[in-house]
Amino acid sequence: MTASFVYSAVRTAFGRHGGALAGVRPDDLAATVISALMEKTPQLEPGRVDEVVFGNSNGAGEDSRNVGRMGALLAGLPVSVPANTVNRLCGSSLDAAMIASRAVETGDADLVLAGGVESMSRSPWVLPRPQKPYSTRDETLVSTTLGWRHTNPRFPQEWTVSLGECNEQLQEKFGISRERQDEFALRSHRLASQAWDEGFYEPLTTSVDGVDLRRDEAIRAGSTAEKLASLKPAFRPDGTITAGNASPLSDGASALLIGSERAADLIGAQPLARIAGRGAAALEPQLFGYAPVGAAERALSAAGISWSDVGAVELNEAFAVQSLACIDAWDIDPDIVNVRGGAIAIGHPLGASGGRVLGTLAHVLRERGERWGVAAICIGVGQGLAVVLEAL
């Protein structure tokens, strides 16, 4: 077994649902970040990429089932470079990076381009196929943007509630107040805005042809505690979750170069960080927001370290309540989590978010001079993923 490393990372700025990126196809977004990653490593010959592994949560529309292959071809990679698309919902691109790292560590590849994409704005409506020809029944169009669709009636009803209701149940279970959630959301906007102002995200992002989007579109630098407190609950009349303390529907793409130690000669650059541990966990579907707890513990165990060694955490903020539940369970200093903002401000294009948190973590570790970091993400239907990075 050899080691695997993160060499480079790039993403688009993330657009709001129906916003600046809504006119861009997901396969074109994928091609954008693949091209940008190759431009960042001009010494690398495109044909030396052993494989492309891309994450995508939808796949039902212009993603065309295998958006990794579509994006690679549109980006001009040689037709000889194979490509795959993986779907683990919100964790798809982190899963893609984990798959890439395993391929490197087992010797199946020296260099894998991993990432993910989602256009939630362009997610299609779908119809069930008629049970018999010439049906006279009416059918209902179902949006594929987010959540359950065509649910199997054999599933227990408590598993198939909305994502928001799942997190209201987490709020009840752990007693996390509306005030704490709003405070966490406000911090996310403040830190994300500050990160862009200070130029942190400039080298990590790429422009999209024909789109004037210079920073993440959902960031609200002028948000205040009073504004957040005035928002109505979104899922229960007496609930705590609002549009202000949950991540917005988003569009975007992310990509990373993951390779062996030998890949440094191909790329012409030294790696940012070593992938030191991976972890996956699962629990009851309605408790999905808490699944990163177990995933991170497994990743830390695989890396041979503990939370006391960790200097930075990138935790995807699907909802403030589930993020706080995880931070509380880990019993870590909240100030080391998402120091450059999180998904509540930046956005959460499902298939792209895992690549964003992993790429951000590698650069945060370098910026802060920390050795160990954890990237973690919760996944609908009761799963979580985590990766431990060791900065070099």
Task: Fill in the keyword field for this structure.
single chain; 392 residues; alpha/beta; Peroxisomal Thiolase, Chain A, domain 1; 11-stranded mixed β-sheet; two-stranded antiparallel ribbon; 11 helices; 20% strand
Describe the overall structure.
With about 400 residues, the chain is α/β, with parallel strands linked by helices. It has a domain of about 260 residues: Peroxisomal Thiolase, Chain A, domain 1, CATH 3.40.47.10. About 30% of the residues lie in helices and about 20% in strands. The protein is built from eleven helices and 13 strands. The protein starts with a strand and ends with a strand.
- The top-level CATH class of the domain at 5-120 and 248-391 is Alpha Beta
CATH fold topology of the domain at 5-120 and 248-391: Peroxisomal Thiolase, Chain A, domain 1
The helix content is: 25-40%
Look at the structure and give the mean pLDDT: 97
> Which range does the strand content fall in?
15-25%
Overall number of strands: 13
What's the Cα radius of gyration? 20 Å
Describe the main β-sheet briefly.
11 strands, mixed
CATH superfamily caption of the domain at 5-120 and 248-391:
Thiolase/Chalcone synthase
Low-confidence stretches: none
Structural class by sheet pairing and helices: alpha/beta
Q: What's the architecture of the domain at 5-120 and 248-391, going by CATH?
A: 3-Layer(aba) Sandwich
| SSE run | EEHEHEHEEEHHEHEHEHEHHHEE
Q: Which overall shape is indicated by the principal axes computed on the Cα atoms?
A: globular
Number of helices: 11
Distance between the termini: 19 Å
